[in-house]
TrEMBL record:
SUPFAM superfamilies per record: Protein kinase-like (PK-like)
Protein's GO biological process: threonine biosynthetic process
Pathway: Amino-acid biosynthesis; L-threonine biosynthesis; L-threonine from L-aspartate: step 4/5
Origin: domain of life: Bacteria
Keywords: Amino-acid biosynthesis, ATP-binding, Kinase, Nucleotide-binding, Threonine biosynthesis, Transferase
GO molecular-function terms, A-Z: ATP binding; homoserine kinase activity
Enzyme class: transferase
Matching InterPro entries: Aminoglycoside_PTrfase (IPR002575), Homoserine_kinase_II (IPR005280), Kinase-like_dom_sf (IPR011009), Pseudomonas-type_ThrB (IPR050249)
Catalytic activity line of the entry: L-homoserine + ATP = O-phospho-L-homoserine + ADP + H(+)
Domain Aminoglycoside phosphotransferase, chain residue ranges per copy: 27-257
Family named by the database record: Belongs to the pseudomonas-type ThrB family.
Name the record gives this protein: Homoserine kinase
Keyword Transferase: yes
């Protein structure tokens, strides 16, 4: 469960006086997510999500995230809209945390996505990439190669507690990726965390994307590798080529990938698998027992990383190159 910060009813009512959000009827903490504290609010107007920004979110980045949601929504991407305060600001303070109200998005995330859903996610990601082209603000990816090294330094000494031999394996992987990471591919605004729990569906129809708090400027094809990792593997660790094919076709129906992007897909997928392995490993080693958050398994991403090491070309993901 991710409610790191408690709020009192009085404080919340006071916070709401800054907005034209109606009168509070009820509120409850949301059990999902790992980064921030989220609450569902019912008022005499539309339902809202209240987010209190926690440890890994830099306050200076919030105008980028909230502005991006506004920009994408205006560009036809279905995503939550931040509600401005009466003074026009998108951000307030509650329980000593930066806090925002965003619109409630109908739908639910899929526990068992199928190939047809992967196709929709591919399309939606490509639409987001296109809609983000003229977004003026910039945010470098703090979780690319240099950021991975910093994260790794914090976990390295204890990595073998999770699996013997990890210290050597991951150090070598980082060296490899630092040397071979592609530089000349198309860049733009990427979501960077488009996992199943961040995509809502109503029936089989994709109703929207949420959780833009890792969004940044980086290689567009890196974002494709993230969804490939997050959506196209089965619980037993096997890659599902039918899902991969559907996802890549969906993406390319909106934004075709260049030959260089396709060639780079295996190494980008190694990188994105490593990125999620490293944040999970850090959380695994540092989250106190009994904390109200579900820890995610780092080894799931180690297995994906090892899979991508064996891939010789993007054709093996389900696409003729
Ligand atoms: N705009 C929204 N509309 C509906 N539900 C939302 C919205 N934003 C967040 N949620 C709910 O809160 C949960 C956690 O949100 P998320 O942004 O993924 O949190 P975190 O950043 O902490 O990972 C989601 O799984 C969803 O249930
Ligand atoms: N998707 C990441 C963790 C970030 O969680 P989210 O709730 O913000 O999507 C992972 O699976 O490691």
């Amino acid at each position: 469960m991710a409610v790191y910060t408690d709020i009192s009813e009085d404080d919340l009512k006071w916070f709401l006086t800054e907005y034209d959000a109606g009168t509070l009827l009820s509120y409850k903490g949301i059990a999902e997510g790992v980064e921030n504290s989220n609450f569902l609010l019912h008022t005499t107007k539309d339902p809202l999500i209240l987010t209190l920004y926690e440890k890994r979110v830099e306050k200076n980045d919030l105008p980028f995230f909230l502005g991006l949601m506004q920009h994408l929504a205006a560009g036809g991407v279905s995503c939550p809209l931040p509600l401005p305060r009466k003074d026009g600001a998108l951000l307030g303070t509650l329980s000593d945390r930066p806090a925002a109200l965003i619109s409630f998005l109908e739908g639910m995330w899929l526990r068992k996505p199928e190939a047809k859903h992967c196709r929709e996610v591919g399309k939606a990601l490509a639409k987001m990439h296109v809609a983000g082209e003229d977004f003026a603000l910039k945010r470098p990816n703090a979780l690319s190669v240099d950021g991975w090294k910093v994260l790794w330094e914090k976990s390295e000494a204890r990595a073998d507690e999770v699996e013997k031999g990890l210290q050597n394996e991951i150090s070598a992987e980082l060296d490899f990726l630092a040397t071979h990471w592609p530089k000349d591919l198309p860049v733009g605004v990427i979501h960077a965390d488009l996992f199943p729990d961040n995509v809502f569906f109503l029936g089989d129809e994709l109703s929207g994307l949420i959780d833009f708090y890792f969004a940044c400027n980086d290689l567009l094809a890196y974002d494709v590798s993230i969804i490939l990792n997050a959506w196209c593997f089965e619980k037993d660790g096997a890659y599902n080529i039918t899902k991969g094919m559907a996802m890549l076709e969906g993406y390319q129906s909106v934004r075709p990938l260049s030959d260089a992007e396709l060639t780079a897909l295996p190494i980008l997928s190694r990188g994105s698998a490593l990125r999620f392995f490293l944040t999970r490993l850090f959380d695994w080693l540092t989250t106190p027992e009994g904390a109200l958050v579900t820890k995610k398994d780092p080894l799931e991403y180690l297995r994906k990383l090892r899979f991508h090491r064996q891939i010789a070309s993007a054709a093996e993901y389900g696409l003729a190159v």
